[in-house]
């Protein structure tokens, strides 16, 4: 039990260590990254056809950043997402989260 608690504390520390304190996220850098790395799966056209890819537009920035950090640190496991975020810095993750948080949620049922 003691080893479990220590492991949990270490994992929590990893999750917060990737978050860059005091960094001001940049929406334009986030848009460039999202277009290059995220849109092929999370774009409006694809998510209407492939429901396994969630819509990221309009989600809360803290939620998006936490999910990206969790993928990067291995707290959340998905080989495709881990490959996408593995080379990104904590600042880049925040940029992407900011970009998606500022997008208007599309009406995906209007087909």
The whole-angstrom Rg is 15 Å
Question: How far apart, in Å, are the first and last alpha carbons?
Answer: 52 Å
- In round numbers, the mean pLDDT is 84
Helix content: 55-70%
Counted beta strands:
0
H and E order: HHHHHH
Question: Main beta sheet, described?
Answer: none
Structural class: mainly alpha
Beta percentage is under 5%
Number of helices: 6
| Low-pLDDT segments | 4-19
Assign an overall shape.
globular
Question: If you had to describe this structure to a student in words, what would you say it looks like?
Answer:
The protein has 111 residues and is an all-alpha fold. It has helices at 2-17, 27-42, 44-49, 61-73, 79-85, 90-101. Helix 1 packs across helix 4 (61-73) and helix 4 (61-73) runs antiparallel to helix 6. The chain starts with a helix and ends in a 10-residue tail after the last helix.
Features:
single chain; 111 residues
How would the blueprint of this fold be written?
Elements: H1 2-17, H2 27-42, H3 44-49, H4 61-73, H5 79-85, H6 90-101
Helix pairs in contact: 1-4, 2-6, 4-6
């Amino acid at each position: 039990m003691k080893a479990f608690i220590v492991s949990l504390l270490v994992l929590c520390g990893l999750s917060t260590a990737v978050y860059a304190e005091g960094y001001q996220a940049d929406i334009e850098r986030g848009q460039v990254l999202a277009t290059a790395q995220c849109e092929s799966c999370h774009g409006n056209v694809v998510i209407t056809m492939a429901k396994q890819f969630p819509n990221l537009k309009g989600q809360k920035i803290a939620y998006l950043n936490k999910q990206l950090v969790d993928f990067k640190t291995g707290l959340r496991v998905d080989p495709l997402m881990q490959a996408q975020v593995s080379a990104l810095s904590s600042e880049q993750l925040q940029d992407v989260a900011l970009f998606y948080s500022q997008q208007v949620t599309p009406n995906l049922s209007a087909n």
